[in-house]
Amino acid sequence: MNKSSNIVYYGLAVLSLKGISLIMMPIVTRYLSVSDYGMLNFLVSIASMLSIILSFGLSELLYRFNDFEDKKRQHIFYKACLKIALFSAGICLTTSVFLVDFVMSVLPTQVSTKALSFLFINLGGSVVLSLPLAILRIHGEAKKIHACCSFARCTTSNLYGFAS
Fold this sequence. Notes:
Elements: H1 3-31, H2 34-55, H3 58-64, H4 71-97, H5 100-106, H6 113-138, H7 142-163
Helix pairs in contact: 1-7, 2-6, 3-6, 4-6, 6-7
């Protein structure tokens, strides 16, 4: 795939993310009460902090140390990163199932158990999903990235629809 079509696909991805945010903001503020909007903002802040901790910077690590001459060593490196990401996702899944009540007792404000569980599930999925997306970006596969992100957006919106 040539560079200009990669640029177009990346531009479409950025436009779709920004467009969804722009469309969702008036909808969210209209249908959520002030306390619900505050809880949503609090959950987004938790997700932002935890995503940094749980991802271990693996996707950035892939970009930085991807200059392997031997394909076998490159695959070993990818597998090691995937194992760490799956471990992190396991922590998120365990937290969402078994430790969500403990996490709620530590939080300074009251949040929904279901919302917190879905937040941890989403964090685990995003940690694992970030690695293949980084690998696709490294290899210049923008079309596959666009398809993968579209699938992830649909899955996430269905999860949130199920949670409410």
